[in-house]
């Protein structure tokens, strides 16, 4: 992001200097040369001006992105927080909803799972929503399809969570065979799993998640929606708590 911000700043400076150069053509040559010299010498003597401009640009970009994300969350709130095609755990009646988009082959998701488990243990008012977001290739899509079939069979979600945690904590590539093995291990009806894999519900669930991720501008995993904020990446437990507290403060007078 910093690199992109620098590119944007360079582009802005180029545009500004280009406009200045075009305007300066109206000055006599001697005067134009003097102005250019003054500007150049000032920037050389005060390079911190560029750093300040860079910092302001980054702040503006972050604020613009936050506003864009909040608008996307608002416009898609029902499907983000209340879709019947998602897994709900934690406290279903919680005052803050924590939505995670994940991929079973994402190493960062594996490490971030412990953060989610800790949040559920320490925050009894937290509603947790899980959405499959298989972006790391065909194996991830296969595993996500099995996960949807598991969810269809296990409405209370206990066996799904056993399945989810075992699959994320396992070693090696996660694919259909591995996902089916874990589904069997946690005691699911494997004949029904195979039937459900061929259902429209599996296809529609993944299409819904992928479409929603696109609308939210998500391009990697894990990604979160917490309250009205979009959080991208394995940011760690403290940052997740910070966003949860911010969402809670927006709803209550005490935090």
Key terms:
Glutaredoxin, alpha+beta, 255 residues, five-stranded mixed sheet, 10% strand, 2 domains, 65% helix
Can you tell me about this structure?
The protein is α+β, with helices and mostly antiparallel strands and 255 residues long. It has two domains: 2-75, no CATH class; 78-249, Glutaredoxin (3-Layer(aba) Sandwich), CATH 3.40.30. Helix content is 65%, strand content 10%. It contains eleven helices and five strands. The chain has a five-stranded mixed sheet with strand order 1-3-2-4-5, with helices on both faces. α6 crosses α9 (190-197) and α6 crosses α10 (200-216). The longest helix has 28 residues, at 48-75. The model has no long low-confidence stretch (mean pLDDT 85).
Write a brief caption for the model.
By secondary structure, this protein is an alpha+beta fold. It has eleven helices and five strands, in the order H-H-H-H-E-E-H-E-H-H-H-H-H-E-E-H.
């Amino acid at each position: 992001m910093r690199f992109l911000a620098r590119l944007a700043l360079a582009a802005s400076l180029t545009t500004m200097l280009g406009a200045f150069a075009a305007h300066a053509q109206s000055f006599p040559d001697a005067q134009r040369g003097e102005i250019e010299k003054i500007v150049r010498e000032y920037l050389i003597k005060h390079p911190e001006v560029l750093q300040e401009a860079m910092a302001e640009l980054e702040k503006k970009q972050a604020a613009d992105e936050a506003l864009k994300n909040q608008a996307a969350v608002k416009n898609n709130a029902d499907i983000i927080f209340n879709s019947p095609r998602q897994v709900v755990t934690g406290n279903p009646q919680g005052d803050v909803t924590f939505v995670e988009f994940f991929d079973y082959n994402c190493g960062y998701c594996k490490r971030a799972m412990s953060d989610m488990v800790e949040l559920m243990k320490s925050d009894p008012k937290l509603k947790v929503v899980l959405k499959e977001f298989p972006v790391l290739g065909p194996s991830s899509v296969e595993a996500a399809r099995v996960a949807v079939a598991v969810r269809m069979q296990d409405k209370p979600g206990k066996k799904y969570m056993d399945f989810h945690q075992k699959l994320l904590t396992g070693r090696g590539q996660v694919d259909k065979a591995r996902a089916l093995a874990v589904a069997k291990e946690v005691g699911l009806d494997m004949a029904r799993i195979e039937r459900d894999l061929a259902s429209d519900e599996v296809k529609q669930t993944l299409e819904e998640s992928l479409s929603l991720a696109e609308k939210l501008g998500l391009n990697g995993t894990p990604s979160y929606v917490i309250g009205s904020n979009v959080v991208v990446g394995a940011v760690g437990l403290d940052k997740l708590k910070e966003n949860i507290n911010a969402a809670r403060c927006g709803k209550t007078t005490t935090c």
